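pls design
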């Protein structure tokens, strides 16, 4: 049984994308060599699209994975993202990606974590740099990633955006300003206008782990979704997810084992100085500084994206 595949410009790739956030310093903080081996194993199993980001800190993991697998670079799709604002900052981000990934082109480069339409407008310089690099052939497609379905809806008809990376799971977990039904309608408009969509957080950042198979199948089989990014840090996760995307059975003991692994965002309160940097970056309103001047996580709202981890000046946050 083979993967269901999609066209990505002149390449054919499986619908399952190897996401590198969960192995990166923001989350598991795996050594690049260890992460590279998992990525290489994924490539051996047939995966061909690797998703990374400047903010994740997983360029080295990705580069080593490609090197270890010995695959021809042109057989892979590499997507990355940057959350910078200006033209020059984005030009630097593109050069950093090319250099650290050891490649002379990027298949898809996205403006990362666009919070709102105002935020998109404020980052017009960065977006221009992406279009400029696309004209020069340095990047092959341009995209945006956003947790906001309202923002995606406004940009749905913008033909300069080739790909949207959107929160998409059956419960709508992580969508900051709407429901999954509203998001489905947004995606429909994007598709009608020629845009393409790959799903973010199909397991809701881990909250849908107890129904992982059913939740992944729901996104995989969704007619509007082109591809699905899923973070993987172990051979077990790779086996389960590739089986699901190949429509193969998943052994019960494997799925039970993975269900039993829980993640949480932990605040080392003895280190926290109550500076609020984490609360400012969190789009989910999931971390707040309380009257004792210590940060506290609202576990209902936290999607374990890890974006707050690197902004903490005291290294008081860790996903474990
Ligand atoms: S608190 Fe917010 S930024 Fe931090 S991991 Fe949770 S959702 Fe992400
Ligand atoms: S950024 Fe770090 S030190 Fe500042 S409030 Fe958040 S956890 Fe505390």
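designed seq:
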């Amino acid at each position: 049984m083979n993967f269901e595949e999609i066209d990505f410009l002149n390449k054919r790739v499986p619908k399952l994308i190897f996401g590198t956030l969960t192995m990166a310093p923001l989350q598991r903080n795996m050594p690049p060599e260890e992460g590279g081996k998992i990525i290489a194993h994924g490539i051996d199993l047939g995966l061909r699209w690797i998703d990374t980001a400047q903010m994740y800190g997983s360029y080295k993991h990705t580069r080593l994975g490609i090197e270890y697998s010995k695959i021809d670079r042109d057989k892979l799709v590499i997507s990355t993202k940057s959350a910078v604002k200006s033209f020059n900052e984005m030009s630097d981000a593109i050069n950093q990606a090319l250099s650290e990934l050891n490649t002379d082109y990027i298949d898809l480069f996205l403006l990362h974590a666009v919070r709102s339409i105002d935020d998109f407008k404020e980052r017009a310089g960065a977006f221009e740099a992406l279009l400029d690099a696309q004209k020069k052939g340095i990047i092959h497609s341009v995209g945006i990633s956003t947790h906001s379905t309202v923002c995606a809806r406004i940009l749905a008809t913008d033909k300069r955006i080739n790909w949207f990376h959107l929160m998409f799971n059956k419960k709508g977990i992580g969508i900051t300003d709407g429901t999954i039904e509203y998001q489905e309608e947004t995606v429909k408009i994007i598709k009608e206008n020629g845009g393409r969509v790959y799903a973010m957080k199909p397991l809701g950042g881990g909250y849908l782990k107890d129904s992982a198979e059913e939740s992944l199948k729901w996104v995989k089989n969704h007619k509007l979704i082109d591809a699905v990014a899923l973070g993987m840090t172990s051979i077990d996760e790779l086996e389960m997810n590739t089986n699901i995307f190949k429509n193969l059975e998943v052994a019960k003991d494997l799925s039970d084992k993975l269900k039993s692994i829980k993640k949480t965002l932990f605040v080392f309160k003895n280190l926290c100085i109550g500076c609020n940097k984490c609360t400012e970056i969190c789009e989910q309103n999931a971390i707040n500084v309380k009257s004792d001047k210590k940060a506290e996580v609202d576990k209902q709202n936290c999607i374990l994206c890890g974006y707050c981890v690197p902004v903490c000046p005291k290294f008081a946050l860790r996903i474990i």
